[in-house]
Amino acid sequence: MNIPVYIQHAPTVLDGTAKVWIDDFLAGLPKEATILEIGSGTGRDAEYIERKGYPVIRTDIHQEFVDHQRTAYEKQVYIYDVTKDSLPPNLPQTYDAILARSVLNHFTLEDLKKIFMTLAARLNPGGKLAFNITKEFDLNEIASILKNNQIQIYETRAVEGEQWAYLLCGKKGK
Questions:
Q1: How far apart are alpha carbons 97 and 146 in whole angstroms?
Q2: What are 133's strand-pairing partners?
Q3: Comparing C-alpha atoms, which of 19, 67, 15, 13 is closest to residue 41?
Q4: Which residue of 12, 32, 156, 168 is surrounded by the most CB atoms within 10 Å?
């Protein structure tokens, strides 16, 4: 991925299916909820969520995205490799909600098994998980992996003509 080109051409406004999906993800969360965003990229989604009054821990694996957000938004962004679960020790280690938009499609199904185990460990009981994934993945297989990690899919949105399936999930408990 050519990150500087991506940053230059990425939309700066959240709209459409993704906006409604994120609004639904936030519904019912208290304003003091701890939210971890994996793969913050250009910062568009975190900015949207923060404008609604929620704090977001922003992470990305790419230093270029981290630098961009630090410059563009003057925000703290952390390097995080979800495959190695390298969350900095100075951050909260569990969260009320985790968002991973346009991130998990970059991994194999075997990688996703480990990633969902990590996300389940990072999610508080009763916590929310939202992610989207390309429709090439078998959603029944994804649901099975999630279930094995005590995470239940509450809603799947697959808009005709779009390549993404948007999932809203929750961890059992509470």
A1: 15
A2: 165
A3: 67
A4: 168
Six-digit token string for 106: 């970059």
3 state SS of 28? coil
pTM (whole model) above 0.90 = yes
Where in the chain does DSSP place strands (E)? 35-37, 56-60, 77-79, 95-100, 123-134, 151-158, 164-171
CA distance 54 to 29: 9
List own/partner pairs for 18-21 with CB under 8 A and 24 or more apart: 18/45, 18/101, 18/132, 18/166, 19/48, 21/130, 21/132, 21/157, 21/166, 21/168
Angle subtended at Cα 42 by Cα 115 and Cα 101, rounded to the nearest 5 degrees: 35
Digit-by-digit pLDDT tens for the chain (174 residues) are 677 666 676 666 677 889 999 999 999 999 999 999 999 999 999 999 999 999 999 999 999 999 999 999 999 999 999 999 999 999 999 999 999 999 999 999 999 999 999 999 999 999 999 999 999 999 999 999 999 999 999 999 988 888 899 999 999 987
Question: How are the residues of the chain apportioned to helix, strand and coil, as percentages rounded to the nearest 5?
Answer: 35, 25, 40
> How many domains does the chain divide into?
1
Question: Domain holding 11: CATH number?
Answer: 3.40.50.150
